[in-house]
Amino acid sequence: MTESTSKGEPNKPKDTKLLYLSDTYKFEAESILVCSGSDTKGTFVVLDETIFYPQGGGQPSDVGIIEVDNRTLNVHFVSFNNGIVQHYVKESVENLNYASPCKMKIDSDRRLKNAKSHTGGHLLAGIVEKIAPELVGVKGHHFPEGPYVEFKGKLSSFTTNEFIDKVTELIKENIDANRIVSAREIDQLELRNLRNTEYQLQEGKKARVVQIDDFEPVPCGGTHLKNLGELKNFNIRKIQFPKENTKIGYICG
Ligand SMILES: [Zn+2]
């Protein structure tokens, strides 16, 4: 993972501390350069802790800059690799000093757009599962182009038009009520009781879940809004039934 051209003895990378898990709205922070490397996606740097969200869980990565050794690195993509967050940069990383302090700044507009789209997906899934128990959320895609949530099972409690009207009405109610979105860690016992997960934890590990008010908690490592009132609009784009599943496209911001 390390490059021989950089100065100093590189530190052996340990798991990156994920600052975005505790604060969606932290757009700037300081960290320490741990090492650099390259793979098929390009050249990357690893930091001790990061505010950059790595792409995954149906959410695009953050982009931004890292200032280190009086140089500015433009981060165009971020990925997660066995506990290590890799920040892919456009510039050369030769002769960077490992253990140098650095400053991170993410694109805050992009972060908030992603958090809105992602939180909107949870809201949609939570409401659908409440009013149509035959549907269980199995996949969320929260990219700006065509976000959707896919459910296992085919809609049978309502006609499609009634369903869209009801879901739209309840989403508006929940946004107007400015319901709180929270995240916490749970253990295997609590995880097993959740309706829509077959996820298995390693011994002694905990899972992060996100929860809107009294909705069912959902395992998720993404970035979310604090309150639903931050969503200014929400619309269902379309509903489809691929392979006996139900797929609901939405748009929100
Ligand atoms: Zn989430």
From TrEMBL:
Keywords, in A-Z order: Hydrolase, Ligase
Gene Ontology MF terms: alanine-tRNA ligase activity; ATP binding; hydrolase activity; nucleic acid binding
Gene3D superfamilies per the UniProt record, alphabetical: 2.40.30.130, Threonyl-trna Synthetase, Chain A, domain 2
Signal peptide coordinates: none
Gene Ontology cellular component annotations, sorted alphabetically: cytoplasm
GO terms classed as biological process: alanyl-tRNA aminoacylation
InterPro entries for this protein: Ala-tRNA-synth_IIc_core (IPR018165), Ala-tRNA-synth_IIc_N (IPR018164), Alanyl-tRNA_Editing_Enzymes (IPR051335), Thr/Ala-tRNA-synth_IIc_edit (IPR018163), Transl_B-barrel_sf (IPR009000), tRNA_SAD (IPR012947)
Hydrolase recorded as keyword: yes
Needed cofactors: Zn(2+)
Ranges where the Alanyl-transfer RNA synthetases family profile domain occurs: 1-236
The keyword NADP belongs to this UniProt entry's keyword annotation: no
Enzyme Commission designation: 6.1.1.7
Subcellular locations according to the entry: Cytoplasm
Family, similarity comment: Belongs to the class-II aminoacyl-tRNA synthetase family. Alax-L subfamily.
Record protein name field: Hydrolase
Species this chain originates from: Brachionus plicatilis (Marine rotifer)
